[in-house]
Input
Amino acid sequence: MDFSVLRNLISRYCAGEEYWVDSRTVYIGHKEPPPAAEAYIPQRYPDNRIVSSKYTLWNFIPKNLFEQFRRIANFYFLLIFLVQLIIDTPTSPVTSGLPLFFVITVTAIKQGYEDWLRHKADCSINECPVDMVQQGTVVRTQSSKLRVGDVVMVREDETFPCDLILLSSSRGDGTCYVTTTSLDGESSHKTYYAVPDTMAFKTEQEVDSLHATIESVAIYTGMDTKMALNYQSKSQKRSAVEKSMNAFLIVYLCILISKAVINTVLKYAWQWSADHDEPWYNHRTEIDRERHVIRAFTDFLAFMVLFNYIIPVSMYVTVEMQKFLGSYFIVWDKDMYDEELGVGAQVNTSDLNEELGQVEYVFTDKTGTLTENNMEFIECCVDGHVYIPHAICNGQILSAASSIDMIDSSPGGYRRVRHSVYQLCLCSCVCQEHEDLFFRALCLCHTVQVKEEETVDSIKRGIHLGKPTSFYISSSPDEVALVEVSYFTASYETIEYSCLSYLLHVLNFDSVRRRMSVIVKSSSGEYLLFCKGADTSIFPRVVSGKVEQVRARVEQNAVEGLRTLCVAYRSLSPAEYEEACHQLSDAKLALKDREQRLAQAYDLIERDFTLLGATAVEDRLQEKAADTIESLQKAGMKVWVLTGDKMETAAATCYASKLFRRSTQILELTKKRTEEQSLHDVLFDLSRTVLRQRSLSGSGSGNYREIFLEISRNCSAVLCCRMAPLQKAQIVKLIKASKEHPITLAIGDGANDVSMILEAHVGIGIMGKEGRQAARNSDYAIPKFKHLKKMLLVHGHFYYIRIAELVQYFFYKNVCFIFPQFLYQFFCGFSQQPLYDTAYLTLYNISFTSLPILLYSLIEKHISIEMLKRDPTLYRSEEHPTKKKRFEPIILDVAKNALLRWPVFLYWTCLGLFNACIFFFGAYFLFDNTTFTSNGQMFGNWTFGTLVFTVLVFTVTLKLALDTHHWTWINHFVVWGSLLFYVIFSLLWGGIIWPFLNYQRMYYVFMQMLSSGPAWLGIILLITISLLPDVVKKVLCRTLWPTATERFLLWPVDCYPTSLPCLCEVVGYWRELEHAVVHVDPAHSKHVSG
Output
């Protein structure tokens, strides 16, 4: 027996990830090694199938049933149903079995449909055609059939089916340009190089003739790929509302057990007297008397069955239907449809709709989420002179433009002069030479390629007016903007001729050097080295040029949020050029430490520069991004930006998006600061500023995480820079695990944001230019960041208000339903006699009272959409009176599940108990010892139960009608139609002889009750008395202590702007304490998260 799989699982999941290294030997083309080689051990790897679905055809029924019966209510009703089948109970098993079957079936259909959609998405990926090289020919197969070791041919604009190693390319230099939008959200093109040993293979036959192994290199397929591992740890998310429902169910289960225990005890206490024993015709034998323990337990179970309807089993299916149907309002929202992309919002899971109305923390990516990831050239500085092109607008070259503006920033004063390109050539020789060299550097020092048309993740580029047009692609969007402006400048004859050069070497950019260079040979035979990079990597290597003027301009642009690059050059003699060629050749051919030797060669070549100038480009904010962030902050949410960019660039974006204000006090926690001070001292300074703490002397190193968390939570906004995808998820998890347990939301656009999206309570993906992985793995997907405003402030707020009312209403109406049954036992000798007919017990939650609350939870609007968007503070602020002063308000945070807190739950429960007492005792005392019909016939027990049930159905339905603010014809149809359906059903159920019934105890009962005038008067009177306290309470509260929403509705439209600060003053007082902003550098996150 092969235990290798078990051994691998134990070593992988028990030994710890830090000690597990996946090293594998891959045989290219699945060709076995020659006999002289080492022993061939075939290894099993997963296929290339992507699986995001939850069920299969074979395990759907058992797995779904197992998950559904994990719910307390479902499992409880299953036990009740089994008890009804086993022992003699006062009600039929149908009364529990039919509602349970209905709930299980509807939920299974809903979950099966959602999983079927996931299966469709998986099939669309797994069935993608892939070209594979087999036996010297190209064979087309499906993506799911790829195996580790297959040789795959990927053509232009195709998506990689799995993690691959580049063996060869159609380009002569063995390079290919790849966009990683599906992984990290970057739409820029990155350069990859083929393996040198296989770079020369160009045909299928040559590739197929390859016999080689790749050792210690992982080539992954299917769920082992890097993309799949980003979301493989996806877990089931549960909303706060569902947790509250379970807590309430436990309380009601305790109430149910208490009722059963009380009735069982009272039954035997009542029967203790000989006068109250069983009647003579059913007298107990001695054997029955000896089995009193078993009989008591049986009676306890019978009472449990009789009162079991206090547990609202249909509440779960109603909540499921409300979430499923309500999610379509997001999909159908035209305001969340983007014309440019041609897509609208998507809902990948409907289980978290109400969480959108409780968000307290928003974690957002920067590039592609807040910004467009589309660089626009702003200006360039050459020898202290600033040039602003008016010819480049949104990345498009204006054909009518023939000049640029030049701002002279010399110490003599600013002057604005407009020069044509011809006039620029008449300037001084030095200025002209540097201008020429500067624009030549922009034209040559890059890795930009020209492309006609491209499709990435179903997004087409290079299409203008329906026709393909040329556009630039590059590993950096900054380069595209620079080449566009240099093309505009060099397109004139005076500069175009001098720009003729021959490209000799490219010294590629890397994150350590933070610069790139090219060596060119001009038409005159001169060798030139052009270099561009970050100011920190260029200035130390400059020996001449106007450094101070350029440095001042670079610093000013950085403060304004612009991305800056410095440009320099060096003239090489033939001997220096030959030496450089020799160094580069030796480094590239090195078999050991190639990267280090290349870095050393670059360091020797890139020196003694002459500074030419600097450029400034802008990554523009998305439309209405600043307005969205401002609205979210007004709504009481704290926005954190988690980005991989450097701090200066990210901070500038935060200022532009109004996340930071100019008056904001900035607190920085960076690696540089911790090098100057100890971590304890830095945290001490920050906490003293934010928390007003005097000392941290009692805090050991183990408490640094808590201190950091406390500081961050008391800041109005936090910016975390240089974050890896896993670090983003750790930050979200850190906030989730804090003592307040706030509801978090993460939003991003790339696969590097997937881990953060999955970690948060609610994950939202943006369907922008940067791929679809974030959208596919999120709970919700929106086209642009601006759509987040309406999703949270409108849809989220409505969802929470509606479902909170739904949950409380279900418990309320079931208390009204069952408590009269409990009271009835005191008048029937605790004989377990049901008060209601079996049909009423079965259909009360399924038919008579289910549709009105379902429709209410779908279309109720307690305030208009325009008002919610106008005043974001309504998202979470509800004011209620304090005990100290009559008109002194306190803020209840709706986002903290305020409408499902215990005081609110207790109010609804007490209201249900009050109404139940009115139903029962009102009917009892009004009609005690009274004749009702003209022939003197008195009402029996079924007539009494029907009277109570009629008052019950009308009261709970009219209670919901009183709570409804937004009436439509659908509301009228469902509310009044439900009452009419009850009347018609009762007439048919009691007015016709049904042949399938052995006995018909309800025959003519309902019509007999309606034929009595006092019954009509009693029904109307009891309904009025039951609803009166709730109506009085609402009138008093709205008059004396109106909520923020109610006061908002009372304001005239013309008075709104002047009245708004009254609401915001209280919220603003607390925000004055949240004045600090923390910058976090993950280079130090190891200490912080410890």
